[in-house]
Amino acid sequence: MKKSIYIILLATAFYTVSCNKFLDIVPKTQVPQDQQFDTEQGFKDALTGVYINLKNERTYGKELSFATIENLVSSWDVTNNTLEQQLGLYNYSDSKVIDKFNLIFSQQYTTIAHINAILQQIDSKKSILKTAGIYEIIKGECLGLRAFVHLDLMRLYGPIPQNPAVGNELAYVTEFGRNINAHVSFDAYKEQLLNDIKQAGELIKSVDPMLHYSMADIRNANGYGSAFKPDDNFIAYRNMRMNYYAIKALEARANLWYGDNEKAYNAAKEVIQARNENDVQKFPLASGVDYTATNFMLTTEQIFGLYVYNMATTYTNYFGNATYRKGTTSTTVTNQLYGNTGTDFREATLWNLLTMTNGSKYNVIKKYLTNESNVTVNTDYKQIPLLRTSELYLILAETAPFNEGLEYFKQFRLARNIGSLATPQDKSSLIAEIIKEYRKEFYAEGQAFYAYKRLSVPKAQVLFAPSAALINYILPMPTAESSN
């Protein structure tokens, strides 16, 4: 018998938000749903509330970026008998692990419910959306975000895609309300997810400013020297919204997960080949300049990221105090993770050896470290990356014919200053090197586990896996699935 998921969400769960500073929005009041969607501003506020939900620490604000998802691949040192240790041992029956995955699961479906409430209203109230293109942008972003969250639910709780018969079936929820949503087959879930992505792209392509302005202009909307001067700030800062190219990047990620390499290749290539009007690549790989400028989050490479105004607090609470750390000397990371190249930009700049007040030394990543003084729009790096250019190069390296894929991989390596490493001689060795790069490139970003799972990587290739760990990529269905 198929299980079901029961979504309960009060009709008053939408936030009206201050629009004075678009990037620093915080919830203020609650508005009944029948009033929420009586105005264009109500739709805008509801969608902004979805982005606020995405930054919740139960998901992309912590657990699905640098915490739980990274502990599954033992990115951090742990203490005996803690949640973090049990995650690294894949002990899914531990009560602390069960509770953690219940919270993640619940928050993801809550976000989907918020999205569905908007989608349930938008067509019938299209006439109140007066701003040109706003209907397409709001509906397109909602469909894209619904697919984004559903894909991560599948990647975390679903089966290994190579063997979809073994593992959980999930609910692809498309309606808002107190409804029971039956779990669907792996293929049916895939079909609905890819259909959402397709519709999202078709809606947004004709109206998204991202197609017509450079990333520098988008980041500096209405600023001095920027050609992008939208009348409505809701249309600004497209790099931190589910924009057209983010939808194509998501399409590449989704098709790679489901094993359709040709479609993954085509979607990734469209983003990589996008050009500005001056024929400069729209989404280039980051360079050494970004690292030396302490842009450790590589915001220049983020096709879609979430702005977190209090990122300094995140760093202080979780990294500045060495809660999340790896090793007591720099060589733990330098040698084991990067191979002691002596040239890799990540190896040279991304980690600090902190000395604590008790004299203990811990190696801590600097990705979430931001400069808080004299910040300009071009030096404000407070973003959690969700889709990056580098991932698309790795997708192209994996999905293209071998010689072409090797060229993409070489370009990626050159951008990280490791072009002198030995060149893979066949497809299997190329895949092995790509796996290593997912581990290095997306440390503390939550992508390594998904890469390991998709390719069913054996324990010997799972860097930092404890000797006692029994690798298990098939998570059980959370116990909260029938009451959430």
Word description of this protein:
The chain has 484 residues and is mainly α. It has a single domain (4-283, 385-482), classed as Serine Threonine Protein Phosphatase 5, Tetratricopeptide repeat (Alpha Horseshoe). It contains 18 helices and eight strands. The strands form four sheets. A two-stranded antiparallel sheet has the order 1-4. A two-stranded antiparallel ribbon has the order 2-3. It has a two-stranded antiparallel ribbon with strand order 5-8. The radius of gyration is 22 Å and the shape is globular.
Q: Do you know the CATH architecture?
A: Alpha Horseshoe
Rg value: 22 Å
Largest sheet: 2 strands, antiparallel
The structural domain count equals 1
Oligomer: single chain
Beta-strand content: 5-15%
What's the helix count?
A: 18
Percent of residues in helices:
40-55%
Top CATH class: Mainly Alpha
Sequence-ordered SSE layout with sheet pairings:
Elements: E1 4-6, E2 14-17, E3 27-31, H1 33-36, H2 40-54, H3 68-71, H4 83-88, H5 95-122, H6 134-157, E4 180-182, H7 186-205, H8 215-219, H9 244-257, H10 261-272, H11 288-292, E5 302-307, H12 311-320, H13 331-336, H14 345-349, E6 351-355, E7 361-365, E8 383-388, H15 389-399, H16 402-415, H17 427-441, H18 448-454
Antiparallel strand pairs: 1-4, 2-3, 5-8, 6-7
Outline of the structure:
The protein is mainly α.
Q: What key attributes describe this structure?
A:
42% helix, disordered N terminus, single chain, 484 residues, two-stranded antiparallel ribbon, Serine Threonine Protein Phosphatase 5, Tetratricopeptide repeat, mainly alpha
